[in-house]
């Protein structure tokens, strides 16, 4: 990896130094790049040197035009200032094709990984094909990110994957107007949440309205929303250290604290009085598409739905013009913990790893870890649904209120932030037995202990 770039690049990217994509001579506020002919302040890029004529290939799972274009647009300042060209390729077959390309010696220069587990698999299976993160990018991550993000991109004590995007998962969606009409207040502790759930049952004795609605159907990935519930409960009934030991298998999957976490998820998901508003009984959760699971909030047949910040994109499919905001049709609050001392926040995100040791690749890595890129990327994503965990991202650049709330929560210095556990586990577990057993736990009323035992038995030797 090139040693030419130093921490000086990170220092140049000060808190207020947003990349000016509008004409710099006007002194205007930074805006999203709209054409490649706009002037850009390139002073922060001087440390890269002249990369004119070089090309960096980027391979991702982000294939749709709507999602890919913001990434492509956010590369434009880098291209204009360095002279390098970034070739973006998105593929829905990313997870299947990347290992094939790496094994064949046809790896991209940089690949975006939708979960750390796949990154770890590629590193362990192809140690000679991957390149550790360069000095400049590593310095940026040290300066601008919670240390946990570097840990999730580290394999065998070597830092390989830089954080790209992030999302907050520990949210409960609700209708502010429905809460107000019923006289309900947003709960701030777990006990308050359970008391509210019981109050909703009491207020609707005929059972036509339920406290909760849920769905875990997701095609071949059915079950993953239930794993998020368990992960959130692990951060509430156990310690952060126990969570870390669980995902690395330092404690077994059927450890008592894990079984307790599954049981706590079941105190809602397997409570016939509490679920499944608008859809049916407990078993209906297994057949309800996760994309539709929150919709009964809009018609008033359920009050709450636990799902990540990215669920904001689904509300327009609920019918009508649904506004997401504190005073809108739907909003979200952080899933409470036992106390209000700190709110554990389950997160997801993407990471990028290099397969070619070259100055232009190292430079693009450094750009992707900078405040400049995070702010430009936010500006080029006008429909929202994206944020970065970079602490120098200006939240006002995030298009949607839920993204701004997510950013506030995941960058809070007192927050207990942990990455989605199933994404950190071996794929045979995290994307296999964990999904399946949580589905059986719902659909077949399998016990928490039996489900945990089966997952433990599936853990690769």
In short:
The chain has 461 residues and is an alpha/beta fold. 40% of the residues lie in helices and 13% in strands. It has helices spanning 8-12, 65-82, 94-103, 116-125, 135-144, 147-152, 176-182, 190-203, 224-237, 240-247, 256-269, 284-287, 296-299, 359-368, 371-379, 401-410, 421-424, 427-443, 448-458, and strands at residues 55-60, 85-90, 110-113, 154-155, 158-159, 162-168, 171-174, 210-212, 302-306, 331-334, 344-354, 416-419.
Question: What does this protein structure show overall?
Answer:
- Helices cover 40% and strands 13% of the residues.
- It is an alpha/beta fold and 461 residues long.
- Strands 1, 2, 3, 6, 11 and 12 form a 6-stranded mixed beta sheet that branches. Strands 8-9-7-10 form a 4-stranded mixed beta sheet. It has a two-stranded antiparallel sheet with strand order 4-5.
- A hairpin with a 2-residue loop joins strand 4 and strand 5 (158-159).
- It is globular, with a radius of gyration of 23 Å.
- This is ABC transporter substrate-binding protein.
- Residues 1-23 form the signal peptide.
- Keywords: Signal, Transport.
- Belongs to the bacterial solute-binding protein 1 family.
């Amino acid at each position: 990896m090139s040693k030419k770039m130093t921490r000086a690049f990170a220092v140049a990217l000060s808190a207020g130094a947003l990349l000016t994509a509008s004409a710099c001579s006007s002194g205007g506020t930074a805006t999203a790049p709209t054409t490649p002919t706009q002037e850009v302040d390139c002073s922060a890029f001087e440390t890269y040197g002249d990369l004119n004529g070089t090309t960096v290939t980027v391979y991702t799972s982000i294939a749709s035009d709507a999602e890919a274009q913001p990434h492509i647009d956010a590369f434009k300042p880098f291209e204009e200032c360095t002279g390098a060209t970034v070739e973006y390729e998105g593929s829905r077959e990313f997870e299947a094709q990347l290992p094939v390309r790496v094994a064949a010696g046809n790896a991209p220069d940089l690949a975006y990984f939708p979960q750390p587990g796949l990154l770890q698999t590629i590193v362990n299976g192809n140690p000679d094909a991957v390149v550790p993160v360069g000095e400049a990018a590593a310095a940026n991550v040290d300066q601008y990110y919670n240390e946990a993000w570097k840990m999730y991109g580290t394999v065998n004590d070597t830092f390989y994957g830089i954080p790209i995007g992030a999302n907050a998962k520990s949210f409960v969606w609700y209708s502010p107007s429905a809460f107000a009409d019923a006289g309900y207040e947003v709960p701030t502790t777990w006990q308050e949440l359970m008391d509210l759930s019981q109050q909703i049952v009491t207020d609707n004795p005929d059972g036509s309205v339920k406290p909760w609605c849920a769905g875990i159907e997701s095609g071949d990935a059915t079950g993953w929303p239930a794993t998020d519930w368990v992960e959130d409960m692990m951060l509430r009934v156990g310690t952060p250290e126990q969570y870390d030991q669980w995902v690395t298998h330092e404690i077994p999957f059927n450890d008592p604290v894990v079984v307790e976490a599954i049981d706590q998820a079941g105190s809602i998901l397997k409570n016939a009085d509490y679920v499944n508003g608008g859809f049916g009984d407990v078993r209906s959760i297994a057949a309800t598409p996760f994309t539709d699971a929150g919709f009964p909030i809009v018609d008033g047949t359920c009050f709450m739905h636990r799902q990540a910040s990215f669920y904001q994109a689904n509300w327009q499919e609920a019918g009508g013009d649904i506004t997401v905001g504190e005073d809108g049709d739907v909003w979200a609050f952080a899933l409470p913990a036992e106390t209000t001392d700190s709110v554990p926040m389950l997160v997801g995100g993407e990471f990028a790893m290099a397969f070619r040791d070259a100055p232009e690749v190292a430079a693009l890595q450094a750009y992707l870890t900078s405040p400049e890129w995070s702010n430009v990327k936010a500006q080029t994503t006008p429909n929202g649904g994206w944020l970065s965990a970079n602490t120098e991202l200006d939240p006002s650049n995030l298009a949607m209120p839920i993204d701004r709330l997510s950013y506030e929560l995941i960058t809070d210095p007192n927050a207990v932030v942990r990455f989605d556990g199933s994404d950190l586990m071996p794929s045979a577990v995290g994307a296999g037995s964990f999904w399946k057993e949580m589905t059986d736990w719902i659909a077949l009323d399998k016990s928490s202990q039996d489900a945990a035992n089966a997952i433990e038995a599936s853990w690769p030797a």
